[in-house]
Amino acid sequence: MRLQPIDLQKIKIQDPFWTKHVKLVGEAIIPYQWDAMNDRIPDAEPSHCLENFAVAAGRKKGEFYGAVFQDTDIAKWLEAVGFSLAAEKNPELEKTADEVIDLIAEAQQEDGYLDTYFIIKEPDKRWKNLREGHELYTAGHMMEAATAYYQGTGKKKFLGVVEKLADLLCDTFGSEDGKIHGYPGHQEVEIGLIKLFQVTGKRKYLDLAKYFIDARGTGENYFLQEISRGDSGNIFPELSDYRPEYSQSDRPVREQEAAEGHAVRAVYMYSAMADLAYEYQDEELMAACKRLWNNIVQRQMYITGGIGASGILERFTVDYDLPNDCNYAESCASIGLAMFGIRMANITKDASYIDTVERALYNTVLAGIALDGKSFFYVNPLEVWPDNCMERTSKEHVKPTRQKWFGVACCPPNIARILASMGQYIYSVGETALYVHLFISNEVCIEMETGEVKVSLETKFPFENLVRIKVSHVPDGGMTLAVRIPEYAGMYQMTAKGQLLEYKEEKGYAYLALAQDADISISFEAPAKFVRANPKVRADCGKTAVVKGPLVYCLEEIDNGKNLAELYVDTEKEIQEVPSELFGGITELVLQGKRMEESAWDEKVLYGEHPVKLSDVTLKAIPYAYWNNRGMGEMAVWVKELISG
Hints:
645 residues; seven-stranded antiparallel beta sheet; 17 helices
């Protein structure tokens, strides 16, 4: 049996590291994004998202504004609201959300169709441009939002709206005669259908998700057929030269060997593949999931858990192509990677998947949002020189400072929904076992087949590596506690009442059999250390990065001066870990190194024979997650290594 997520209504997170991020959801992120979607943020790109629904519902007159998938902004916002209301009741927020749901229901067409772009702008082109139209993508996010809102509030109106929509999809798509034999250009509806099945028990939703996955890439490519028919239009000019590998539709999913194409589409699809592999006990599909996962994490993932090397088409490129200053590494892509990873961990009970989930959460996902919850990165580079982040160049997608909002704003509400659902990444539950994936302080009541178990987890991780877990109400028949052993953890041990405990280690988890209530301490070593990339990663040859546990560190101009490219770090010198009050309390890292001296160079001379002169310098590094929270400046994760001999 696969492991199951916990009920978010039963967990309270109070953690020195994570609370400031999780609390932001209700206190700042949801209100700020509500203002953004109502076009009330000064000097920010307009959203018009709610206005589109008002026009589609007939409450107002007007034209559609925004991206073809603009509806998904409010869908992900509602999903975050659902998760947030599960954690903490908020009658005013719930009332606002209910009013939005009423508006969405009014906009829905009689037959269940729901997409404001096609309702308002191109009603005659419904389902005619699956390649670019994002109708199914939008439907998927609506389904995810409705299931989260139902689970958080118990209210069924939104669920009824998306069931009507899903029923329309079941009647419209499939292998049967008279149905459309297509599949989504941007995968997501598969996840939504699976969640809808899990909530309603209606198998037809699961079967349609399976159809979309099974049909993809088989026979004559459906998207190329759309183009040849000439009736689908061209919404995105950059896709005028359409190539099926961009949407992972160039071959059947079970035959795909490597992650390719648009990174977000890929990991959303892989997440659905994992769910379907389990539900249908499809070993071939599960083998494809493992193969694609391994390709990503072993050859195409940044040290920060970012994926997607190319700003052009937001895509994977080739193995080991991981440029630092022009990559994309979209926030949504790392969120999708975490979604894929938690599914694989719950199915396989293999903690190595959580190592990557943790890496993405602690680095790229957190870097995507400012500490005040009111500005965002869409793109997450590992090296920034603000002066060359220029429009109409190869780096125009790289922003040197977080933005108030985006015309295409999929990342901000996506970050909101993952922060609001963090509890589902901390624990998973088996029939008689509780799995601890992440070390985040919390109190939770766990529903197991043998009864409710209460758990308290206390820690100051990731800056200290001591975790205390208290388990009470252990059932009469006992239970199993499985605690992850991180890949970076040295000298891992468990104790109770000062005595070492023997545990069984399997697939990265330490298994303990509990016959009674227990108070267990877990400790391990995870000092800051230098790491290097495989030499095949050409961008990082001769360079080093600094990590501490799951945290990747970076250098910023504010601490280390301009032109970070002049710096060399001495990896033979000890890394100092220094407590700091920055960002609510962190561990800064102090490094020793050298700086190239510019004094020999005349600014009018571009090239010359001047010898390299180096001077001693002390460097400071902070967690990558917090870069650009003190103003705009240069940033670098990878630094040249001072090599002697």
